[in-house]
Amino acid sequence: MLHGKKELFLEGTNGLDKDKENEANIFAEQELIPTHKFATFIERKKFSKVSIISFAKDIGISPGIVVGQLQHKNLLNITFCNDLKQRFKWDHE
Predict the structure, then answer these.
(1) Going along 8-90, which residue ranges are E strands?
(2) Among positive and negative, which fits the CA dihedral 88, 17, 3, 32?
(3) What distance in Å separates the CA atoms of residue 12 and residue 3, rounded to the nearest whole number?
(4) All residues at 6 or more sequence positions from 28 whose CB lies less than 8 Å from its CB, including other chains
(5) Rounded to an integer, what distance in angstroms lies between the CA atom of residue 28 and that of residue 7?
(6) Out of the domains of life, which is the source (predicted)?
(7) 25-57 tens-digit pLDDT
(8) Is the whole-model pTM more than 0.90?
(9) Residues 6 or more apart from 59 whose CB is under 8 A from it?
(10) What does the alpha-carbon distance between residue 67 and residue 62 come to, in Å, rounded to a whole number?
């Protein structure tokens, strides 16, 4: 299980627990993206929006997850392709 049942994980928030952020990255790397396919994709060193979208579609995940992993591995600039990430707006009561 990723984090505890009652824990909330929000990317880009200040004060985020680095251990939990690392746990989320490991989960994405190990569970969401087949290792051998990701290694092949990385070897090509072509990280355009088109190639990211195509790869994500091929493995059946959101392109934003691929972007996040490429950024986490410092293979993609932290500002590039962020529009491929899904954002959620939370209503505060």
Answers:
(1) none
(2) positive
(3) 17
(4) 65, 68, 69
(5) 17
(6) Bacteria
(7) 788 777 889 999 999 999 999 999 999 999 999
(8) no
(9) 33, 34, 37
(10) 9
For 29-58, b/e burial (b = at least 16 CB within 10 A) is beebbeeeebeebeeeeebeeeebbebbee
Please say whether the beta carbons of 25 and 72 come within 8 A.
yes
Nearest to 88, CA basis, from 6, 9, 2, 4: 9
Q: Return the structure tokens found at 56.
A: 């994500």
What does the domain layout of the chain look like in residue ranges?
A: 19-84
Contact present, 51 and 63 (Cβ < 8 Å): no
Which of these, 48, 50, 54, lies nearest to 75 by C-alpha position? 48
Amino acid present at 76: L
